[in-house]
Each structure stands twice: as structure tokens, then as C-alpha cells.
Amino acid sequence: MSLSDDSRYLRGGPVAQRIIASVREDAAIAKAEGFPPKLVSITVGDTAAVDVYVRNQRAKAELAGIDFEEKRFAADLSAAELEAAIHVMNADPRITGIIIQRPVPVHIPIKTLQAAVHPLKDVEGMHPASIGNIVYNQLDLAPCTAAASVELLKETGLDLKGLEVVVVGHSEIVGKPIAKVAARIMAGETLDGAFAHYGAKPDPRTPGHIAVKEAVFPFARFPGVDILLGPEMKSTGEVMGLDRDYAMAFAKSQLGAGIDLPRAGTLFVSVRDEDKAGILPAVKRLADLGFKVLATSGTARFLKENGVEAEKINKVLEGRPHIEDAIRNRQVQIVFNTTDGQKALSDSKSLRRATLMQKVPYYTTLAGAAAVAEAIAALKAGSLEVRPLQEYF
Asked: Is this structure's pTM higher than 0.85?
């Protein structure tokens, strides 16, 4: 996509340097008046990924003349104990800002911690009161990322008040320059008229192909990190599978993300009661394809009652030989697992780590299980083909 003559690239480095210099001047004045600014970083547990962020934050704080202190708490600390510690920091006049490093252990609700930080010390702007103040433009502390983005946009020299910001790009899913189409619509053209400049409007009722995107995560690089997802972004990129058939598009997305789907082997299933009926079709599909089925006691009993032969295996807490041993011994090739409640999530952490380290495909939703079952069937049928993008558009 070409850029128009009045387009420009915005370089964040010089803007960041000016912001840091300005903050350093303000910090020096505050120190001279007896109120040195101090940022406290809260870390719960030990993770290599968090350590990288903390080191970078410490370096930037020191560069800006802000005192920095990391408070590290044990991973088994209760949510109530951590809240109490945060309230002590709220009351400490020497602390002017608090930031909570993520991820936190699964037994501690992140929303609870964010709400515990006083809005006047909430440097991330995640407290409910901070979010409300954003709506009413009554900020005491602006969220760092958002504030920096606004400063960068100011570099354009444009009057941005009342303008909408559009991310410019080209859609590799439908093969049309969606940003250009959107710009024409905003200028007053109809949807059909805007698409007419770049070919006919795609008909969602008769798609020529299917696109499936998959996120790529770096969990394997950080020992001890849990693979559970939350509201914060953890992916380091994404891939996409394109095909005329949904099952094969899904299979391609998994292959692109580095997930080697098995064509044969053993499936392990352990799901909560409300998911047992929903998981049955996917398990039956893989069993019909020749997969052996292992399951925990409750799930195995349900599967047998519904015509699927399943062998019982112990949970980790039930003693050896258990499922984690089987995964580490490469006796399991794919896992379907759903959990219910904080205790079940915590108990299954070692299972998740074992699948990660042994590169065993691990699916935690009914939709994911159904999709991967059909994807494996498509792969076994030998219909995997690679085509250039031009063949789809």
C-alpha cells in the first residue's frame, strides 16, 4: 500500500526522550521541595518474563529521576494478604505510584488488586475510578501507554480534537484494502460504492475461502509461567490459515503456530460436568479415527456410558502413575481439558506445564476441541495443500 504525499512516519524515540527529560525536571523540583516521587512495583511469585519488565521499568524510572522499589511477594500469598499490603502502600506518603506486574497467580483475581490501588497512585489507570475519570476527562494520573500515544499523535501538528483514529492496513482475509474502503465511507460514499473502486463487495453468504487466525505465545521460553490467559495481552504475534474448507483452514492455523497435530495416538480428556455432553462429539470423532482415549474417573465413566471406550487414569493428586507422568513419557498426543473454580485451575497447573514442555496440543474449550477433531480428520484424509494468496482473491 502506498502512502500519500502528506503521510508521515512518527518516531517514538525522540518523543520519549523529551517526555523523560520533562519528567526529570519535575522530579527534581519535587525532590527539592521534600516530596521525592517514588514508584513501587508489585511482583507476586517468580517469573522470568516479569523480571524483564521490572528491569526496564527500573531503568526508565531512574533515568527520569524517580525512585523505584520492587516489592516481591510469595506466589502462595492469599489475595486478602496482598490487598492488605497494597492498602499499607496507599497510606504511605513516600509512595506516589503503584504498578502491579502481571501475570499473578490464578488464585488472586487481578481485578481485585487493581481496585485495591488508590486512584491517585494508580499509574496504569486500571482502577474503576480511574476508568470513570477518563470518560469525564478528570484525570489525576493518565494511563502511561495512552498518554504516550497522545503525545506521539501531537507530533503530527494536526488539530486532533474530535477526530477518529483509524489503523491503516490491507486485509489479507478478503483481499481488499479495508482502510481505504473505510475512508471512503467516512467521506460519504456508500458501502457498495466504496468497494466498487477495488472490485465487488465480498458476499459473506458465499465465501470463497475460510480464514482462521491463531495467536502465538512465548510461554515455553519462561520456566514456571502458567499458560492460562487473562485480560492482558500475552501473545507475541499471530498466524493465519487459509483454505476452502474450515477444518483444513483450522489445521493450517495450528501448523503455522507451531502446533503439530497428531494423526494417531492417545487423547486425554478431563472436563467439568457441564462440558461432558458437549465434548462427546469431538471425542467420538477422534475415537472413530483410531485414537485411544484416556480420561479421569468421572469423564471416563461418562464416555463409557455413551459408547466411547475410555481407560481411566489418575489425576496428579490421586497418586502415580498419573496423567502428568503419561504426558512426560510421551504416551499422550493431545489433551482436552476444562476446569471449574480456582482450586481446579491451581491443581491443573502442572498438567498445563507438562503439555507445554512436551509440545502436546492442549485445548480448553468445546469449540476448540470440535475444531481440532475435524482438523485432524482433514489431515488424515491427506487433503493438505499450499496455495499462493493470489489463488484466493
From this structure: no
